[in-house]
Design a protein that fits this description.
Aminopeptidase, 18 strands, elongated, alpha+beta, 2 domains, six-stranded mixed beta sheet
């Protein structure tokens, strides 16, 4: 074999670069099976169609309280699932809940199925109601702008088109897959045991749940999410002329007592990793009118009158039920140590449970990481749960192994600058399809 020594240095360097690229490329291809390579190719062919479908969904307003719009998005998705031989069901919510309902889809019942039974979770609603000025799909410089584009209509597209790919290649014939699109993720209908009943039942029939909330990056996934709950403190003081404040018969008044409580919450409850709490609205004075459902109100008071009423409403986020209960117990203790001539009560509401960081979740992350590496992408690592909000997957975390944050990449969720990065959306469809393929063949 002839040596390359006689060649110019710059030419030899170029040959070495080409050789390295060839070897690297060959390694990546070898790590994907022949079927998985077909999955990648089929997903690539859906690139433009998936973008057009995203546009259709975004251009239908589906703010949580726009019940007709939420259902319209559900029907649009439902028709697509019927095309790939999924059974579909629209689940209505009771009228008094003021929520549209949910779309569920599933593969036909199998006498014998193989691999993991998988539940995919998305949601139909957005935070942008019908009166929002942010309403339409727009593309600028390869980036989609639109209400709910990233949270989470983009994720809905990833779910649907990954399954379309597998169906087209006849790879779902022995799979058991359920798909849940809730219609009220942004503001879950109460009571929760009604609005999340079917979701929990679907999880109890499954082995794995994959959530497609917006991604924090191609190389991050969520193995744990904090739960959220609400709290409300109400304080009563003794109404009197301000000249008598701090005297034995008048005491400190409601506003000072509320100030004491919040200050002690800050000093004595704060500090645990992943625990946070926030007083979102505060009213105090002689008279207070507060609408808890709308989280708004008004107050009246004068500087020469000791305040007799104060109310604060806030939120609490936690990584486990134990952490939530410890925080609540501390808050209950603090409100009992009242200033003179005042009293206080605290109440709590449960919203979203936590999704704890389990070993089973970590194993799912390892599988996703391997798919990413086999596709020639970088490693996928767990995202900091302290930086993620609550999501529907938390309702099923106690029943199945969970992985979330598998939806589209973008920015500005819940703002008029919400975006989806089109350059990565098809890659995420590819990765999801390969992950599901491997899970249903384990």
């Amino acid at each position: 074999m002839k040596s390359f020594n006689h060649l110019p240095k710059t030419f030899k360097a170029s040959l070495y670069v080409l050789l390295i690229c060839f070897l690297t490329s060959s390694t990546v291809i070898a790590q994907l099976s022949r079927t998985e390579s077909k999955i990648i190719a089929k997903a690539e062919a859906y690139d433009q169609e998936s973008i057009h479908f995203l546009e259709k969904m975004i251009n239908i307003n589906s703010g949580t309280l726009n019940l007709a719009g939420v259902k319209e998005v559900g029907m649009l998705l439902g028709e697509e699932y019927k095309k790939i031989a999924f059974n579909t069901q629209w689940i209505e919510m009771p009228d008094e809940m003021n929520r549209a309902g949910h779309l569920f889809a599933s593969t036909p019942e199998r006498k014998k199925s193989k691999g993991k039974k998988i539940l995919l979770i998305g949601h139909l609603d957005t935070v942008f109601e019908a009166d929002s000025p942010f309403q339409e799909f727009e593309v600028r410089d390869g980036v989609v702008y639109g209400p709910g584009a990233n949270d989470m209509k983009g994720g809905n597209v990833v779910m649907l088109y990954a399954l379309k790919v597998l169906h087209d290649l006849n790879l779902l014939n022995k799979a058991t897959i359920s798909v849940a699109y809730t219609g009220d993720e942004e503001s879950a209908g109460k009571p929760l045991n009604v609005s999340r009943k079917e979701l929990i039942e679907a999880a109890q029939r499954s082995d794995v749940a994959l959530g497609f909330e917006n991604s924090t990056g191609f190389n991050n996934a969520t193995v744990a999410r904090r739960g959220s709950s609400g709290w409300k403190v109400e304080v009563k003081g003794k109404r009197s002329h301000s000249s008598s404040i701090f005297r034995e018969k008048t005491g400190a008044g409601a506003v000072f007592e509320m100030s004491r409580i919040l200050n002690e919450f800050y000093n004595d409850v704060r500090g645990e990793t992943y625990l946070s709490f926030n007083p979102g609205v505060l009213l105090g004075g002689t008279f207070v009118n507060f609408d808890g459902a709308k989280s708004k109100g008004d107050s009246f008071g004068k500087s020469n009158v000791v305040a007799q009423t104060a109310v604060v409403k806030g939120g609490l986020r936690f990584i486990s039920e134990d952490q939530k209960n410890r925080a609540r117990d501390k808050m209950k203790e603090i409100i009992l140590n009242n200033l003179p001539q005042t009293s206080a009560t605290i109440s709590f509401t449960d919203n979203y449970p936590s999704m704890g960081p389990t070993e089973a979740n970590s194993l799912l992350l390892e599988r996703l990481n391997q798919v990413s590496l086999d596709m020639g992408q970088d490693a996928v690592v767990a995202y900091d749960p302290g930086k993620r909000g609550a999501a529907d997957i938390s309702f099923v975390a106690q029943y199945v192994a969970c992985l979330d944050g598998l939806g589209t990449m973008g920015s500005g969720a819940h703002t008029p600058n919400e975006t989806v990065d089109l350059e990565t959306m098809n890659l995420l469809i590819q990765r999801t399809a390969v992950l599901i393929y491997r899970l249903i063949n384990e």
